[in-house]
Amino acid sequence: MTLYQLSELTEGFPAPLDIPAAAVQQAMAADTVLIVLDDDPTGTQSVANLPVLTRWKQEDLAWALSQNTPAVYVMTNSRSLDPDQAAAINVSVAEAAYAAARDAGKRPIFVSRSDSTLRGHFPLEPDALAGVVEKQEGPIDGYIIVPAFGDAGRITIDSVHYAGNTTTGFQPVGETEFAHDATFGYSSSRLTEWVEEKTQGDVAATDVLCIKLRTIRSTSNDIAAELLHAAHRQPIVVDIVDEHDLRALALGILQAERMGKRFIYRVGPPFVRARIGQETPEVLSPETIAASRHLPATVAGGLIVVGSHVPTTTRQLNHLLQHSSPSVIELDVHSVLAENSQRYLDSLHTQLVQAIRQGNVVFHTSRELVTGVSGEESLSIARKVSQALVTAVNRIVHEVTPRFVVAKGGITSSDVASQGLEMTKAMVIGPMQPGIISLWSTAEGPAAGVPYIVFAGNVGTDSSLTDVVSVLSQDSSLSH
């Protein structure tokens, strides 16, 4: 395992520029709005006070645009779908966005938000969006690829993408657990080579445009000058270490776009925050969390739904169980996949409701990861398990009102929101921890006003889940 300290990775580079968020905000065109297609809901963890949709009819997008925010999130959950479904959803969202934006007098710019550790449908999703944009407006010059997510320890230097932290060091992402993903695995840490790998050689590594850290830390003119070279959907990979680097890139992009360039952004969570000139949101206080609730809880406990299988989540779940005493109810994957699963699920529901009346409940899938013989079969199994999980959640919220719901894992949090809580539109209130772990609030559905925490599988320290549950549980106003 190769680990590097941040100081050695950045040695010899200029310091980051000091760019206020307001500078980016002022440079934005008033008639544009970012339409963020989020392939799982965890992309919202870096932003606050923006609308989020789990359905994308034209009227849903019209509601979101009526909030007059610089960006709108649409949860496609496409990371859990097969390629054909993912492509179709991207096209559907883009077409609905153009129709709604036309009525609102806005011009959409599309963001394909994906994983900071490079898992997801690439180049399929940017290609699908580009097809719609090119029919409506004209050629797409490039795909700006920025997986960096400094708050979660993902940085890109000299076109190599790393995951880690400043304490233990940074590891090339191709050497991490994330590169072994059953569906979206890869071997390359250098983003130029990753593009070649993911396009199966259709785009050579040498044909990828690289914007290096030295350029990012010079002037927006220099960044724009590089972007002006892009043509014919050219992939563009960008070195990013911190928020100021992202803001510098945003200014360069805005300048290039004013000069007629057209891009699709394929990015990690914090890019949108920088691109719209939003300050890094403050961690939510218990008072703000309480204010997001519209109805009192009817039971003593909150529901912690854990569907992610990455090692980070397993460590966080173990920490929670060691440092608090929730009821623990397991969704047995083999029982879900069995023919007589309904009797098992009915019994499970009774257990869950009885437990949440007494206190917090951890509802998790069995830690044994059941995979298929192919990526497609693994996805199919994951969807069946997720369906059982969210159906159980839905039955709970139709019977009782929990104090809070935490969903751990990207696919899990999307399905819990749209199917478990029947949420179609919500507002992102802000983060539970610095730059990560998002609280949503909705005024509709059976879980109206229940604080909903979207918690990615691969972020946070071992104690992060424990800390979040502690804050939610200590807030006495949640159970008035």
Structure write-up:
This protein is α/β, with parallel strands linked by helices and 480 residues long. It is 39% helix and 19% strand. The protein has a 15-stranded mixed beta sheet with strand order 9-10-5-11-4-1-3-2-16-17-18-15-12-14-13, sandwiched between helices. The longest helix has 25 residues. The protein has 2 domains: 270 residues, Rossmann fold; 194 residues, Molybdenum Cofactor Biosythetic Enzyme, Chain A (3-Layer(aba) Sandwich), CATH 3.40.980. The termini are far apart. It has 17 helices and 18 strands.
What's the Cα radius of gyration? 22 Å
CATH level-3 fold name of the largest domain? Rossmann fold
Query: What value does the average pLDDT take?
Result: 94
**What would CATH call the class of the largest domain?**
Alpha Beta
Number of strands: 18
Number of domains: 2
- Biggest pleated-sheet summary: 15 strands, mixed
The unreliable regions are none
Shape: globular
Assign a percent range to the helix content.
25-40%
